[in-house]
Amino acid sequence: MAPPRDTNDTTNDIDRVREPIVSPYMPKYPDPMSNVSKFKIIESTLREGEQFANAFFDTAKKVEIAKALDAMGVDYLELTSPAASEQSYNDCTTISNLGLKAKILTHTRCHMDDARLAIETGVDGVDVVIGTSSYLREFSHGKDMDYITQKAVEVITYIKSQGKEVRFSTEDSFRSDLVDLLSIYKAVDKIGVDRVGIADTVGCANPRQVYELVRTLRSVVNCDIECHFHNDTGCAIANAYAALEAGATHIDTSVLGIGERNGITPLGGLLARMYTADKAYVKNKYDLTKIRDVENIVADAVDVTVPFNNYITGYCAFTHKAGIHAKAILNNPSTYEILDPTDFNQTRYVSIGHRLTGWNAVKNRIEQLKLDLTDEDAKQVTQKIKELADIRPLSLENVDVLLRQYHSAKESSNHLSILETVVSPDQLT
Length: 429
Fold this sequence. Notes:
Layout: E1 40-43, H1 59-72, E2 76-79, H2 86-96, E3 103-109, H3 112-121, E4 125-131, H4 134-139, H5 145-161, E5 165-171, H6 178-190, E6 195-200, H7 207-218, E7 224-229, H8 236-246, E8 250-253, H9 267-277, H10 279-285, H11 291-301, E9 319-320, H12 323-331, E10 349-350, H13 359-368, H14 375-389, H15 396-410, H16 415-421
Parallel strand pairs: 1-2, 1-8, 2-3, 3-4, 4-5, 5-6, 6-7, 7-8, 9-10
């Protein structure tokens, strides 16, 4: 953290430290169990995302999405089970043969038939799942924990024998009995599973519960830990961060968070959160400038628009409006931005055509237009903008017209009368 600035310091403003301070309340020493600076992303748009209400991806679209995510640098791509349909099988095969840098996974039931189909497609790994909560054991598959453990060992052993990576996950983990969970995780860890998975299938968990469960699991298994969080109650990103703090190694995401019901941890949102924790790690590992492109591809494919307040790419994400905010942003963007828009190939925008505007923001626009006006001129025009904006907000073009008219009139000392003449935003065309 930068030291307090000495009021007698003669250092030029341009030399001032401009890196954002994330928080003075961050831990002074990192938790030795934490993987906040060492995590991997399992991108599940082509599996979980297919469960989104509007989703239908043909093969060409799946290939386009897979290539876009691979270009971003995600570690894994997870695809729909080949047992789901003939086309799902063919798509697994097609994407497995693209030669992408990301490892290709498919997500299957804990069943030997599914495992054999998965191996046939040529994927790099298989994500095996079975429900363990009392709800799912009674109302879904109807199996007890002894059967589940036996079947898990059988399927995992087969997949490992084929030289493939394998993850075993319980479904509805946070409504499952802890003793049951730890027992089955220890059993699969003993036979060499690559990862065990925790799934908040109904989005009921909170960060404290996540931290405690992952920390407990970390103490009983040696393998990696993957976490899958649904967003029904708005905790998916916070839960993912808490999981990494507790020792999880892999997080499942989807583009724009699409998935079953309200979806899962959004890729862009997770990267925004992790950027604030370890910017160098995130920037060096993932191409953050490609987030907007992949989101636009997926949004178009599922017929939705990117939300106005979307992490990083929402059109308001880097828009500043209040006068006090605008002044500080113009002096040092870190005052009101924890993310640097240039790292994401985004642009900062200071809105000035409204009643909350401040003269510093208007002065900045004057400088952008290279108009020869003083601070007092900026204050005069700002007051007029406020008056007009009480009628309706002004577009940037409206503001520019007013500034240019004022500038031209100043040459004949008629600038103040110009302000008196303009009484409606409709005159600024």
